[in-house]
Each structure stands twice: as structure tokens, then as C-alpha cells.
Design a protein that fits this description.
The longest helix has 19 residues. The relative contact order is 0.13. The chain has 6 helices and 4 strands, in the order βββααβαααα. The protein folds into 2 domains: 71 residues, Double Stranded RNA Binding Domain, CATH 3.30.160.620; 57 residues, 434 Repressor (Amino-terminal Domain).
């Protein structure tokens, strides 16, 4: 199984992806993650059929065995998971809601430390939700 890490960013209404690594780095895009992945497959297939014939890292991909790891910038994250409540998240993180909204819209960009703090709060929220039991 091959893992492909895609960093997702949002710009002009589209999701853009980029891979981390050496050599050729495709930059697929799409309105949705599914479209972005299909675009990535087309880019890779074109690449290995032409100039990438000898590129072993891309040439040996079996798409049925690929697992994607998504890393989001904050704009892409909050647009993808737009049901999340900024007030609740900002309270858990301990930062101003307006500042978090600026990160969400791309008006401002967090430092690496601030992004890590937001990521940890989101992971903690997911962990809390994972423990919820509902009754009917």
C-alpha cells in the first residue's frame, strides 16, 4: 500500500493539492476532494506515459492500493468542514473568534505554533465526539 500526502489549499473556489517529496510534484485541483483525486490520477498517468517513464516512484502506482493523507490549510479545512462552529472552537483553543474567522477566510495566516494549537483542539474535539453515546 502506498501513502500519498496531499496538502489541500482553497483558492478561487477550488481545492488545490500539492504533494510533498522529491522530484516531480503534481498540483491537482477540483471543486471537491473526489475531483481533485481524479485530476491527480490523470496528471500522474499523463506524466508516466510521457516524460516520467523512468520515474519509479510515480510509475509503480497501483491506484487501488493508494491511501491518501490529507493536510489542510485553514481556509480549505473550514470550508470542507463548514458545519464546525467557530465560536465553540475558538473557545476551546482560547483565541479570539474574530482572529479564527480571519484564518478561516484567509485574511490572516496563523504561525506554525498557532496552527498546531488549532489542530490539537480539533483533534481533542474529535476525540470527545468519538466518546459520545446516544440513546433513543
Amino acid at each position: 500500500m502506498k501513502k500519498i500526502s496531499l496538502i489541500l489549499e482553497k483558492n478561487d473556489g477550488l481545492l488545490w493539492g500539492r504533494t510533498e517529496g522529491k522530484g516531480w510534484m503534481p498540483t491537482p485541483y477540483g471543486a471537491t476532494i473526489i475531483e481533485l483525486i481524479e485530476n491527480l490520477k490523470e496528471l500522474v498517468n499523463d506524466y508516466v506515459a510521457n516524460e516520467g517513464k523512468s520515474d519509479k516512484s510515480w510509475n509503480s502506482i497501483d491506484w487501488a492500493k493508494v491511501v491518501f493523507e490529507f493536510k489542510y490549510d485553514l481556509v480549505a479545512f473550514f470550508e470542507t468542514f463548514n458545519y464546525l462552529n467557530l465560536s465553540a472552537i475558538s473557545g476551546k483553543i482560547g483565541i479570539n473568534r474574530t482572529l479564527l474567522n480571519h484564518y478561516k477566510t484567509g485574511l490572516k495566516h496563523p504561525s506554525a505554533e498557532q496552527a498546531k494549537k488549532i489542530e490539537e483542539a480539533i483533534h481533542n474535539l474529535a476525540s470527545e465526539l468519538g466518546k459520545v453515546k446516544l440513546v433513543a
